[in-house]
Amino acid sequence: MRQLLCDSGPLIATFDRGDRHHAAATRLLAEWPGQLLIPEPVLGETCNFLRNHVRGGPALELQFLEAVTRSGPDYTVIVPTEDDRRRAAELVRQLVTAPLGYVDATVIALAERLSVPDIATVDFKFVGMASRVSTVKSLRWVLQEGWS
């Protein structure tokens, strides 16, 4: 089964109809032919953003949480291990002058540990940074490159 690691951008866009990536992100998450992996830090970042930065945020946060918790095998929340956190810290250290924070670094660390090359993000800066530092050299940015 194909797996897709989700950054917060596509998740936010799916629940925020005003987001410019709404249509593409909604389609991707609905049509992905496999499992959607949400790192625990991404879950928190998505909830926080929806609640505090989107009109009707508390209701959207609840819709998002209900979708994640009721969907069964489609969504899986991944809790980073201690090794994942160490790798994330190493990535942040490597890119300390770049805008790579813990959440994005955790997505990269999980892609490496789980050998998941497919990543959903709307953040082009993240794409460039991750491609430079990840040990997974075949990372695929499915919103930008397609996923068929």
From TrEMBL:
Gene Ontology molecular functions: hydrolase activity; magnesium ion binding; RNA nuclease activity; toxin activity
Coiled coil (UniProt feature): none
EC number: 3.1.-.-
Cofactor: Mg(2+)
Database matches in InterPro entries: PIN-like_dom_sf, PIN_dom, VapC_family
Domain PIN: 5-126
Keywords, sorted A to Z: Hydrolase, Magnesium, Metal-binding, Nuclease, Toxin, Toxin-antitoxin system
Residues given in the record as Mg(2+) binding sites: D7, D104
Family that this chain belongs to: Belongs to the PINc/VapC protein family.
Biological role stated in the UniProt entry: Toxic component of a toxin-antitoxin (TA) system. An RNase.
Protein name according to UniProt: Ribonuclease VapC
Species whose genome carries this gene: Micromonospora yangpuensis
Lineage: Bacteria, Bacillati, Actinomycetota, Actinomycetes, Micromonosporales
